[in-house]
Amino acid sequence: MQQVIVIGGGVVGLTSAWWLLEAGYRVTLLERAPGVGTGTSYSNGGQLSYRYVSPLADAGVPLKALTWLFQEHGPLRFRPQLDPHQWRWLAAFLANCRADLNRKTTNKLLELGELSRRAMAALAPAVPLDAFEWRDAGKLVVYRTRTAFDAATAKPDTAGTRQVWSAAECVAREPALAALEDKLAGGIYNGGEAVADCYAFCVALADRIGAHPRFDGFVHGEAQRFVTSRARVIGLQTSDGPLAADAYVLAAGMQSRALGESAGISLPIYPLKGYSLTAPIRQDDVAPEISVTDFERKVLYARIGDKLRVAAMVDMVGEDLSLNPKRLDSLTRQVKEAMPRAADYTRITPWAGLRPATPNSAPIIGATPYANLWLNVGHGPLGFTFACGTASLLADLMRGKAPPFALDGLTLG
């Protein structure tokens, strides 16, 4: 029976470990933090958007990005750095800003999203949905401008599930949007999309992993570098000493880039810093029941249990996790204007996380030049959405089983 070391205790690493255990491997999980799910998985947007998988790179985005940089409440901030990773990623991102490439990537992510939806459902007997506040909320994307709304409705409805709503219909079905009614051109609703608490999911899944008969334990230490020989990884150096196994899975978020470089592998991922606000919902508050995305502002609203989670913004500032007061103040003002009665905004808990994104928004799954080193990285803002799907794909690939669809655009290379 093969022994695998999974590097990373966030939602991607944990799901990878579970699917490998279920596939018959023995697994050790290495996580640098004292607990699981405390990095990018901790306080993310909480949306499981299987059908709304719009890659950031698209025709017209570079011009929009320049506009956002000069907006007071713009969704994008860019701080140029003497960092070759930043400039290489930007060059690759710009090369992907084409309508044809966007359509191709979107179609592939829709396949991955459907696989992920089914994989999450298959996990429910082991990790009950109520253990992490899962709720079939549906997803409503609202548009402030007629141009953006018309462009969205002109796109084909590949899943055959969307509903196009006027501004009045958006408010009728989601009263939390009442303050925005005169500012909206309309909205597009998709059923079957969910919201949940990603951190609670990680904790619940970690408990099940810990009880699995083939699990060899959690190791809490910093992965430092791979030791390689003749196209194989022969060891992993950590702050807790050397570790060795038959195979290794790299699923460590942004840390994956430096670890890949230690083995000569260049991973095209860059940290897109995002912010979230969490506020308690009081008895008389009018919080959204539907998961809502404000398209132009790039702000996401999700009711998770008795709390409102708001996630937004992309800061390209390197691996800086500090809470920027100006960005938080800007987001708080936008939230109060959009949904003034949705939660107790005097008790907001702010958070920031680094989303490890690829230039085309597609994760990287599968083999490397080393026969026993595997990847599950680069999920960007859709780590929770895609984690179960990419974990099931990874387990198939490691066993030599054919994936359920072609993985072009989802592998290293």
List the helices and strands and how they pair.
Elements: E1 3-7, H1 11-22, E2 26-31, E3 47-48, H2 61-69, E4 76-78, H3 84-95, H4 99-123, E5 139-143, H5 146-154, E6 162-165, H6 167-173, E7 186-190, E8 194-195, H7 198-210, E9 215-220, E10 223-229, E11 232-238, E12 241-243, E13 247-250, H8 255-262, E14 270-280, E15 291-294, E16 299-304, E17 307-316, H9 325-338, E18 349-357, E19 364-367, E20 373-377, H10 383-398
Parallel strand pairs: 1-2, 1-13, 2-9, 4-17, 5-15, 13-20
Antiparallel strand pairs: 3-8, 5-7, 6-7, 10-11, 11-12, 14-17, 14-18, 15-16, 16-17, 19-20
Helix pairs in contact: 1-7, 1-10, 4-10
Describe this structure in words.
The protein is α/β, with parallel strands linked by helices. It is built from ten helices and 20 strands. The chain has helices at 11-22, 61-69, 84-95, 99-123, 146-154, 167-173, 198-210, 255-262, 325-338, 383-398, and strands at residues 3-7, 26-31, 47-48, 76-78, 139-143, 162-165, 186-190, 194-195, 215-220, 223-229, 232-238, 241-243, 247-250, 270-280, 291-294, 299-304, 307-316, 349-357, 364-367, 373-377. The strands form four sheets. Strands 4, 5, 6, 7, 14, 15, 16, 17 and 18 form a nine-stranded mixed sheet that branches. Strands 9-2-1-13-20-19 form a six-stranded mixed sheet, with helices on both faces. Strand 15 (291-294) and strand 16 form a beta hairpin. Helix 1 runs parallel beside helix 7 (198-210) and helix 4 packs across helix 10. The longest helix has 25 residues, at 99-123.
